[in-house]
Amino acid sequence: MTLSFPDGFLWGSATAAYQVEGAVGEGGRGRSIWDTFSHTPGKTVHGDTGDIACDQFHRLDEDLDLMSELRLKAYRFSVAWPRIQPDGRGRANREGIDYYRRLVAGLHRRSIIPCLTLYHWDLPQALQDEGGWTSRDVVPRFADYAALLYEALGDQVPLWITLNEPWVSAWQGYGSGAHAPGIEDDAAALAATHHLLLAHAAAVEAFRGVEMGNGRIGITLNLTPALPADNNSSDSAAARIVDGNQNRLFLDPLFHARYPEDMLEVYASVSDFAFVKDGDLGRISADLDFLGINYYQRHHVTAGTEIAGRARVVPPEGITTAMGWRIDPEGLTALLKRVDDEHTKIPLYVTENGAAFDDYVDPGGRVDDRERVEFLDAHFRAAHSAIAQGVNLNGYFVWSLLDNFEWALGYSKRFGIVYVDYPTQKRIPKQSARWYSEVIAVNALPDG
Ligand code: IFM
Question: In which element (H, E) is residue 377 found?
């Protein structure tokens, strides 16, 4: 049966500045924590860095044409904070603003809706030197930075996202240390969690204080549901802890003005939560216009493998993506339902979903990524099922438009619907890109 999506459903694709732009030393850009981290020996696979990445900074028009060719209705990108404020404070760097003005104007010329993420992990190094997200002082810095963009692009961008995946910033950046700035300290991760949420709140307040045309603002969370590996009480308790860390630590303050009771207990030995000041939770739970959800997989948890803060989970059996992640489209339906039932009725967007596979260019010059087509088809169907059950889902952004710098895994993982041949920077749309373009054209999935 053909499955049609609601009129105006926003089909898009997403990238992030450090993963695609390159040109790290150009246009007056300052250093970010990812420049430092990726240039530290041993931190990324093969010592890869984002110095060149997909070179989108120099290939903007080509990439915009590609988006148009693929009939994207929206493009989600992030702004590199150190392009706007090289040291994380003060006046806007004109060249940085001009670059994003050019990007947004190029999208409009092609009738593609810009969706701008203010922060996708590239904190100016100068702010990290002052404590980064563990310091409350970062909060007004972020609001100032956001205000510069509202002023420059406020009437041009309809969808604004404050933070991308604050869980990753806090818990991989300051907890496990797998991401920049590479700190391993759960107390720091908790403080970072709170200051990220507070910075989000401050950016929303600044947004509400200026004339933003039709602009709407939200946040993107990576929600990773956790299921008990076996149906017994100890696995259930373990899964509940993982769920608390990955999901409720963010959903509860944002939508219920509280940190989850069980998380306060789990972390009692590492933190007294003294960083939470009077009034903070009221600010963090202020109304949003939408919620972005990034969904990749569900964790299956068995007792004894969870550790407070980080999910140690049962490795998946059967077919996985090249990341070793379980392929679980039903998890998306359940997650969307759960957010709608338990947390908020505001419009939802899937702001990221996609998969890495071991793609290669065949002798005919094509990339036949049928696994990705199957993956996306199944997940779009899952999203459709949630809509059919009443969930207010407004759009879907495939991660990612291009193969790109997959953080600590460097260029070893390919998430794009467009293949990037890094030595030549040639873009080759994969079969999934062609397929996605057809879905967008008819706003429906073909018979399955
Ligand atoms: O590449 C990342 C992206 O930056 C944030 N969400 C998950 C993607 C795949 O790991």
Answer: helix 370-388
Confidence of residue 283 (pLDDT cuts 50, 70, 90): very high
pLDDT value at residue 307: 65
State whether the beta carbon of 294 lies less than 6 angstroms from ligand 1. Answer: yes
Rounded to 10°, the helix 329-338/370-388 angle is: 30
Residues linked to residue 393 through DSSP beta bridges, in sequence order: 348
Q: Where are the alpha helices (DSSP H) in 278-338?
A: 280-284, 329-338
Over range 320-325, report the average pLDDT: 97
Ligand 1 touching residue 406 (CB < 6 A): yes
Domains of the chain, each with CATH number or no CATH: 2-446 (3.20.20.80)
Distance 406 CA to ligand 1 centre (A): 7
Hunting for tokens 């600044």 — which residue is that? 206
CA R_g for the chain: 21
pLDDT for the residue 446: 80
Measured CA to CA, the distance from residue 311 to residue 334 in angstroms comes to 20
3-state secondary structure labels for all residues of 124-190:
EHHHHCCCHHHCCCHHHHHHHHHHHHHHHHCCCCCEEEEEECHHHHHHHCCCCCCCCCCCCCHHHHH
16 lines ligand 1 (CB under 6 A): yes
The angle formed by the CA atoms of residues 346, 350 and 353, to the nearest 5 degrees, is: 165
Q: What are the tens digits of pLDDT across the range 336-386?
A: 999 999 999 999 999 999 999 999 999 999 999 999 999 999 999 999 999
Those residues with Cβ within 8 angstroms of residue 268's Cβ, 6 or more apart along the chain or in another chain: none
The C-alpha atoms of residue 243 and residue 250 are separated, in whole angstroms, by 11
Band of pLDDT at residue 404, cut at 50, 70 and 90? very high
| Closest C-alpha to 224, from 197, 252, 239, 246 | 246
Give pLDDT, residue 318.
Answer: 84
Q: Are strands 393-399 and 290-294 parallel, antiparallel or unpaired?
A: unpaired
The structure tokens listed for 416 are 């794009």
pLDDT digits (tens, 9 = 90+) for 50-91: 999 999 999 999 999 999 999 999 999 999 999 999 999 999
122 ligand 1 Cβ < 6 A: no
- For residue 184, the tally of other CB atoms under 10 A from its CB is 11
- Asked whether 359 and 369 are in contact (CB, 8 A), the reply is yes
pTM greater than 0.85 (yes/no): yes
Q: How far is the CA of 274 from the centre of ligand 1 (A)?
A: 31
